[in-house]
Each structure stands twice: as structure tokens, then as C-alpha cells.
Write a structure and sequence with these properties.
The protein is an alpha/beta fold. The protein is 32% helix and 22% strand. The strands form two sheets. A six-stranded mixed beta sheet has the order 1-11-7-10-8-9. Strands 2-6-12-5-3-4 form a six-stranded mixed beta sheet. The radius of gyration is 18 Å and the shape is elongated.
Length: 267
């Protein structure tokens, strides 16, 4: 049965117990609480944050709030596929914080000894099928993506959304050949909004952010491929106090409210 994703955040729709690959043994679920202050921390200077592309909207919002709460601070973001960001960090790119879309990509950084704090899972995200408004191909489930004449965009396997898609398709017993493999989830979504493909597998949060341009179709196999998002401060950063303050802000009740409103699930 096709279920059109509502244009309201549906965080917590699936049980929080459905996790993704916990290959990074140092990752622990964050437990936001009212005791985590979202008030000014006295941080100044530039805080450089490397973050998964799927965090673009929420982190941009939080960055503005953080700067307001901390006069004299500036949050600078680099949004891209998590695997590309991890490679940049291990190659020496300076950043104060890394927020990844999977434990596996964070593990690349922790295995290289580049983190300066333990990693924390701060949200989870789940895949949906995204189609153009009106669903012209009549797609109802994953097997429909493999029908002749249906053009599909997926993220590359090395990217967290691609790894999750691979798990979900395997769980459904579906084999398909995408017409394009994208390096981040925003690029996969854009292929649908531009009319270049008939469907893609992206995160629920990206569909919600796209609004009325597209429709999101829930499918049961996505519960087997939920992605945990870990965050950590980095040794290569130039503003350690700012990095810690940013992580604290993200896992605070204020940060979590913005994230769950956008469709992320609590860890």
C-alpha cells in the first residue's frame, strides 16, 4: 500500500530501536535533556562544521540561532556527502566538528584518530521513495522501481544514503540499475525535482524540505536501513571551545526541537 508522506514532520514514526550499522563501537546515543543549556555559552570566533548534506536546512537554522545566542561567533558550514567530508578531514582539512550521516563514515575519522571527543548519535533518518508531484509513473513500492521504463536515481554506495538504499533493496529482494549514482542525497533529490528521473531513494527529511514539489512514499523495508547520525569534535579545529559549544547546542532541547520538526527521529 502506498502511503504519501505528510508535509509535517513524522519523527518517531518507527521505533527508535531500529538502528543502523553500529560499526563504530565508540558511538553512543545522545540523550538530550532540559539540563543541556541552549543559552549563550560565551563562545566567539569562527566555528567550522563539516556536516552531511541532509543536515543543510536544519544546521543552517541552528547556526543562525547559535550566532544570535553567542554574539561574536560565526558558524561556517561545509555540506557534502559524509564519505567525501571524512576523506577531507583525514587528509588534514581543518574543522571543529564533524556530523556524519552514518557510523561507518564517522569511523573513518575516529580510526584515523582525528576526533577529540567521543562520538554521539544525535538523530536518526529514514529513507523514502521520492517521486514527482502526482506520481506520474504510479510507483507504489520498491519493486515498482525495477519496472521497465522507470528511471531511478540512487546515492553511490560509499555515501550513507546509498548504503542504506542498498540494504533496503536487498531486504525487498529488488535488483535495479539506476540511471545515475549521486554523491549526496541532495543531488539525488534534485534529479527528481528537475524531471530527470522518475524516482529516487532519499531521506524523509529531504522530502519534507522539498515541500509540494514532490511526494514521498513510505515503504516497510526502510525500517531495516535507518541511519544513525553521529557527531564529534575534531583535533584539527581552530576553535575547540566553539566546537564543543556547537555539539552541546545540537544535542540540547533547542537543537533537537529543530531537528525533529524537520523529520529527523530522536536517537
Amino acid at each position: 500500500m502506498k502511503t504519501v508522506l505528510a508535509v509535517v514532520a513524522s519523527a518517531g514514526l518507527f521505533a527508535a530501536g531500529c538502528g543502523s550499522d553500529g560499526s563504530d563501537g565508540s558511538t553512543a546515543a545522545a540523550t538530550p535533556s532540559a539540563s543541556t543549556s541552549s543559552a549563550a555559552s560565551g563562545v566567539t570566533g569562527t566555528v567550522t562544521v563539516f556536516a552531511a548534506a541532509s543536515l543543510t536546512g536544519t544546521f543552517t537554522t541552528l547556526g543562525k540561532q547559535f550566532e544570535t545566542a553567542n554574539p561574536g561567533s560565526t558558524v561556517t558550514f561545509s555540506f557534502a556527502g559524509s564519505s567525501a567530508l571524512a576523506a577531507q578531514i583525514t587528509s588534514g582539512a581543518p574543522a571543529d566538528v564533524f556530523a556524519a550521516a552514518s557510523p561507518a563514515t564517522m569511523k573513518t575519522v575516529t580510526d584515523a584518530g582525528q576526533n577529540s571527543s567521543a562520538t554521539k548519535v544525535f538523530v536518526r533518518n529514514q529513507l523514502v521513495i521520492v517521486v514527482p508531484k502526482g506520481d506520474p509513473k504510479g510507483i507504489k513500492d520498491l519493486p515498482d522501481l525495477a519496472k521497465p521504463g522507470v528511471k531511478v536515481a540512487l546515492c553511490a554506495d560509499a555515501v550513507p544514503c546509498g548504503a542504506a538504499a542498498k540494504k533496503a533493496l536487498a531486504a525487498a529482494g529488488v535488483n535495479l540499475t539506476p540511471v545515475t549514482l549521486e554523491q549526496d542525497v541532495k543531488s539525488a533529490l534534485s534529479k527528481v525535482t528537475l524531471g530527470e528521473v522518475d524516482a529516487a531513494l532519499v531521506y524523509r527529511t529531504d522530502v519534507l524540505a522539498a515541500g509540494e514539489k514532490v511526494e514521498g512514499l513510505e515503504f516497510p523495508e526502510s525500517a531495516k536501513a535507518i541511519n544513525d547520525y553521529p557527531i564529534a569534535t575534531l583535533k584539527g579545529g581552530k576553535n575547540p571551545a566553539g566546537g564543543k559549544a556547537w555539539v552541546d547546542y545540537v544535542i540540547s532541547s533547542t537543537g533537537q526541537a529543530v531537528l525533529t520538526k524537520a523529520g529527523f527521529q530522536s536517537p
